[in-house]
Amino acid sequence: MVVRGWGRGAAALLASVWVIAGMATAARRAAAADDAPFTWTGLYVGAHMGGAIDYSKFSNPYGTTLFGDEVRSPGPFLGGQVGVNYQSGMAVVGLQADVSAAEMGGTATCMQPGRTLPGGDPEFMGAAFGATCQAEPDWFGTVTGRAGVALGPQGRLLLYGKGGLAWAHTDIDMAVGNLKAGTYGPDNARSSASFGQLGWTLGGGVELALSGPWSVGLEYDYLHFGGHGVPTPVTGPFDNPAFPGIDGATAP
């Protein structure tokens, strides 16, 4: 089975709000005096926190799925960043790396056939078992280039765009769902997977330099990752002649 994470279809979405970023650079300390020109040039470190939503699409080996194939996993995250800027006139360019720990998770019924399997009662919609799928992204990070323009008094307002490489780590859990294990169907088998993926990111934001070495900002990022194979639960057939519409059916 293939899980396509962090987006609708094969896409990816991470909406983040960076509510605090502490910036410490020698250039900014030197520019603290009122009569000194301000510059974004220099090294910086900072912290951020925000919220994100992950979209993981679970492919269905039976085709069209009854309840949809997407698991949405919202949650908060917290992390830090380090980077360097260079300013020439109003133009500001730079490089930045960041990493975040996330507390995200979501579940949904997945891989449930939208109609009966061949050989079953065509009027019966459940001649195969689906599963409960859970996606839990817990770490992600990016390495990006930034380019923007400094505006406002002394150029302390920075509008910028960014793009580059992205990485995320996700845990996937699946459990077969049925009426009653051992009586009406196979046991509730489970499977798990834990993996990292490389992808790409695009984003943008606004940052305001405060007094001294500090600044605050807001940022939105979109992360895109492709598919990744994961094991499905091992299952057996539904063996109960008393239910001719689903006798012999199986789970994904």
Written description of the protein model:
Strands 1, 2, 3, 4, 5, 6, 7, 8, 9, 10 and 11 form an 11-stranded antiparallel sheet that branches. Strand 7 (131-151) and strand 8 form a beta hairpin. Mean pLDDT is 79; it is low at 1-33. The chain is rod-shaped, with a radius of gyration of 25 Å. It has one helix at residues 26-30; strands at 2-4, 21-22, 42-58, 70-88, 91-102, 106-110, 131-151, 157-176, 190-209, 214-224, 227-229. It is mainly β and 252 residues long.
Name the descriptors.
252 residues; mainly beta; 2% helix; 11-stranded antiparallel beta sheet; rod-shaped; 11 strands; disordered N terminus
Q: Helices and strands in order, then pairings?
A:
Blueprint: E1 2-4, E2 21-22, H1 26-30, E3 42-58, E4 70-88, E5 91-102, E6 106-110, E7 131-151, E8 157-176, E9 190-209, E10 214-224, E11 227-229
Antiparallel strand pairs: 1-3, 1-11, 2-10, 3-4, 4-5, 5-7, 6-7, 7-8, 8-9, 9-10
